[in-house]
Amino acid sequence: MASTSKNPHAGFRDGDVWLRARLDDAVQLSEAEMEGSLLDAYRNLLRNIESVLRHYGYLTVSKNTDIELLPEDTIQLIFLKIHQYIDAFDFTKIFDLLEEVKKYELPETYQKVFEQLNTLMDDLSIDEINELLAKYQK
Predict the structure, then answer these.
(1) What CA–CA distance (Å, rounded) separates 14 from 20?
(2) What is the mean pLDDT of residues 83-109?
(3) Structure pTM?
(4) Please, are residues 128 and 120 in contact by the beta-carbon 8 Å criterion?
């Protein structure tokens, strides 16, 4: 029972047409699900690779291109300024500087340092700040 119709199900009985249509839907759904799961697996792989590279310090590129990554020399200058402001008892400038740093992305090696600096400044623990700066100033 050949047909000149463009219907891909032409020549099938009504029940066959329905079954064929459901099978086509199932195949398309399976392909879409597989594509989605492969895409998810690929994204997870990229996240894992990025995590390992960041852990070992090989990845310093900012993920968010809108936020600038502070370079090492700028961070060292910030440490020097904090030390100078401590010597001058100008704690307001230190708080302002630490707030400004929050607008930038920090290399992973310095993220905890600045978290500690913020905490120590909240407590005005000057001796501990000087010790922390001494560890990381070059």
Answers:
(1) 10
(2) 91
(3) 0.52
(4) yes
